[in-house]
Amino acid sequence: MTTSSNPPNSVTPDQTSGMWGGRFSEATDAFVAEFTASVQFDQRFYKQDIAGSIAHATMLAKVGVLTEAERDDIIEGLSTIRSEIEAGTFEWRIDLEDVHMNIESRLTQRIGITGKKLHTGRSRNDQVATDIRLYLRDEIDDILKLLERLQKGLLGLAAKNINTIMPGFTHLQTAQPVTFGHHLLAWFEMLVRDSERLQDCRKRVNRLPLGSAALAGTTYPIDRAYTAELLGFEAVCENSLDAVSDRDFAIEFNAAASLIMMHLSRMSEELILWTSAQFKFVNIPDRFCTGSSIMPQKKNPDVPELIRGKSGRVFGDLISLLTLMKGQPLAYNKDNQEDKEPLFDAIDTVRGSLMAFADMIPALVPNIEIMREAALRGFSTATDLADYLVKKGVAFRDAHEIVGKAVALGVAEEKDLSELTLEQLQQFSDLITADVFDKALTLEASVNARDHIGGTSPKQVEAAIARAHKRLEQLYA
Ligand code: ARG
C-alpha cells in the first residue's frame, strides 16, 4: 500500500483500510469514509453485536476452529469492550466505518492476534443481519410489554365505565347510544390485533443468518444450529443468499408499527375531539397538556396531537424500507446499510407513543353527565323506536318511515323523541303505547337491548372485560 498517491484529505491507510487494505493503492477519501460509515447510528446495537460475536467464537471453538483458550480470550476481550462502551470510555472511530469493525479492531488492540481470528467463517453481511434481528427481537419484546400495559389500562377504565352512556357516532353524527366501556373495548380490540401481528412478525425475525458469511456460506465446519441455540433463535435461515440480503422482517415490523400508529392516531383524534370545549366528554390531566403563550384559556391536548402527527413518520419509514429493498439483486448490497435509521425511527416512535398512551389512558376522567346529555341529543334512540314497532308487527321499512316523521316533529319542536307526548307519537302509529318510553326511548333501554356478544349493553361489556383479561393472559403467556 502506497501512501504517496493519497489525496491530501484522505485518512491514513492504516486507519481506514486496515480491514481490507490489501488490494487498495490509496486510502479512502475522508468524505467518502464519512459518507459510507454507519457507526454514527449502528453503535446502537453494540450489545447484540458482542453477543453475536461471543456465540460465533463459542461455536468456532466447539467445532475446533478456535482453541478453548482463544475462545476465552475473545469472550473476555469482548466483555471488557462492552463495559468500556457502557462506561462511555470507548472511542468510536468513523474511519472504522461501523459498529462491527470498531469492536473488532478494539478487540485486536486489546488481545492481539487472537482478535483477528474472530472473523473466521463470518462476514459483516451475515453479522449485521444477525445483529439487527437480535436487536429487533429485543425491541419487539419491549413494545409488547408496553402494549400489554396500555391494554390493561383500557380494561381498567372500561370497567369503571360499564354504565357510562355516550353517543355512538357514524359519519361523526349522533347514531345510537353506546356505553363508554364498549367504546374503550373497541380500542382494546385494535391493540389485540396489533399485538398478534407483532408476535407473528417476531417468529420470522427470530431466525439466524450467521453462517451465511458473505453470501455463499463458508468452508469451515460450522455448526449453525448450535449458534442459533446460543442466541435463542428459533431456527437458522435456510438460504445463505437470502439470509444476508432480505430485510423483509424489518419491513414487516414497520408495517406492524404503522398499524399500531394508525390505531393510536385514531384514538388520539377522538381524544382531541372529546377534550374540545364543544364535546367536553373527557378531561386529560394537566400533566399531559400544555398551554398557549398567547391565549391564557388554552389547554392543548399535545400528547394525542403529537402522536397523530408522528404516525406519518412511521408510515414514511415503512415506505423507505420497501423502496430500499425493491430494486436489489441478490445478495448483499450496501443499500442495506440504509435499513437501520427507518427501522430505529419506527421503533423509537412507536415506543414513545405507546408509553405516552399507557400513562395517559388510566388518568382520563370522563364527564359522565355531559356524555349522557350529548347522547340525549340527536335522536339517538330513533332506531329503538323503529325496532319497537317492528316487534309489534310493522315491517322495518315502514317503521323507518314512521319514525322519520316523528323525528321531523321533534326537530320542529326542538324536542327529543322521549320529550314528545304519547298523543304526539300516536299520530304516527296507533301501535305506540305508553310502554314506549320505558321500552324504547330511554338511553338505558337502548343500550340494554343490545344484549349479545359484541353488543354495547353493560351486561355484555362486563362479560367482554372478563374475557379480555383471560385473552391477555394467553396473548402474553
Ligand atoms: N455497515 C454495513 C451495513 O450496515 C455492514 C455490512 C457491510 N458489508 C459490506 N459488504 N460492506 O450493512
Topology:
Elements: H1 13-16, H2 30-36, H3 39-42, H4 46-62, H5 68-87, H6 99-111, H7 124-160, E1 165-170, E2 173-179, H8 180-205, E3 207-208, H9 224-231, E4 235-236, H10 240-245, H11 248-274, E5 282-283, H12 302-326, H13 340-360, E6 365-366, H14 368-376, H15 382-391, H16 396-413, H17 422-426, H18 436-439, H19 443-448, H20 458-475
Parallel strand pairs: 3-4
Antiparallel strand pairs: 1-2, 5-6
Helix pairs in contact: 4-5, 4-7, 4-9, 5-6, 7-8, 7-13, 7-20, 8-11, 8-20, 11-12, 11-13, 12-13, 15-16
Bound molecules: arginine (ARG).
Arginine is lined by residues 38, 42, 98, 124-125, 128, 332, 334, 336-337.
Comma- or semicolon-separated keywords:
single chain; 477 residues; mainly alpha; two-stranded parallel ribbon; 20 helices; 6 strands; elongated; disordered N terminus
What is shown here, in short?
Helices cover 60% and strands 4% of the residues.
Describe this structure in words.
- Helix 4 (46-62) crosses helix 7 and helix 7 packs parallel to helix 13 (340-360).
- This protein starts with 12 loop residues before the first helix and ends with a helix.
- The radius of gyration is 31 Å and the shape is elongated.
- Helices cover 60% and strands 4% of the residues.
- It is mainly α and 477 residues long.
- A hairpin with a 2-residue loop joins strand 1 and strand 2.
- It is built from 20 helices and 6 strands.
- The protein has helices at residues 13-16, 30-36, 39-42, 46-62, 68-87, 99-111, 124-160, 180-205, 224-231, 240-245, 248-274, 302-326, 340-360, 368-376, 382-391, 396-413, 422-426, 436-439, 443-448, 458-475; strands at 165-170, 173-179, 207-208, 235-236, 282-283, 365-366.
- Bound molecules: arginine.
- Residues 38, 42, 98, 124-125, 128, 332, 334, 336-337 line the site of arginine.
